[in-house]
Amino acid sequence: MRALTTTIDRFCQRHPRFGIPNLIIFVIIGNVICYLFAMMDQTGYFLYYLIFSPSLILQGQIWRLITFIFIPESFELLFLFFFLYFYYFIGSSLERQWGSGKFTIYYLCGIIFNVLYGFIIWFITGTEIYIGVNYLNLSMFFAFATFYPDQRVLLFFFIPIKIKWIALLDAAYFIYAVIVNPFPFNLMPLVATLNYLIFCWNDLMFYLFPFKSRVRPRVIHFKQETKRAEKEAEKRPYRYKCAVCGKTDTDYPNLEFRYCSKCAGYHCFCQDHINNHVHFTQ
């Protein structure tokens, strides 16, 4: 898990423009549009042409690989608003934490895992199961709670509760779904959990076992490395660039940047990621 997470972080560092900014907003807009059209459709064919179907995908209806993520989890307006509000809050927070690139990879990997699982079940059993992204969206609570366990939110807009307790309720729901639902539906929560573990394993281990997860500081002449890095930065159109989100002091002149003394090499981070990043080891 650690090596895979490090690979993803390095890819995002080398390709700072990769990703879909405000991805969760597009997902929410798609849900709203599907809800409105579904309410106007009296035949039910509209949603039929959006659902995931391996047999129809292999017949050429490849749009189903994407459109199923826009099918609302609930057609009760109040519940739909509640779900979309929390998904926007959690998704936008994770994008600020990780950057657009890593959050895009996180969400796309979750979609790919669901698609692969649907195809595997269809090939083995010949049964087409309903594939949605509700567990993928709910798994974002786990990621958010890993970074901000003590942050308070208003449950139902008036009950203050820490996000870690919501994550525990979310985990209980996942366990309940695994136990109660019949095969192969009961494995879908595990597919979403796998996505979370891949991207948050290092942070989860640091949160659970901080005394074992601390990165040993390297014995380096940090001041000398910092000066040399600043001299090299003078040759570029910007002086500082965050190794996580790609922000520069040219684009964000009021943002503070710092070098990390625990990372191998010369890696600069903005104020949002100086204390929240995976340390470079090589």
Question: Main traits of this protein?
Answer:
4 strands, globular, Rhomboid-like fold, 12 helices, mainly alpha, 282 residues
Describe the protein's topology.
Blueprint: H1 2-14, H2 23-40, H3 45-48, H4 54-58, H5 64-67, H6 77-98, H7 100-125, H8 134-147, E1 152-155, E2 159-162, H9 163-180, H10 188-208, H11 210-213, H12 222-233, E3 257-259, E4 268-270
Antiparallel strand pairs: 1-2, 3-4
Helix pairs in contact: 1-10, 2-6, 6-7, 6-8, 7-10, 8-9, 8-10
As residue ranges, the low-confidence spans are 213-223
Kindly state the mean pLDDT as a whole number? 80
Task: Sketch the topology as an H/E string, one letter per element.
Answer: HHHHHHHHEEHHHHEE
- Estimated helix fraction: 55-70%
User: Sheet with the most strands?
Assistant: 2 strands, antiparallel
> Hey, roughly how much beta strand do the residues contain?
under 5%
Overall number of structural domains: 2
**How does the overall form come out from the CA principal axes?**
globular
The CATH class of the largest domain turns out to be Mainly Alpha
Give the beta-strand count.
4
Number of helices: 12
Neighbour order of strands in the largest sheet: 1-2
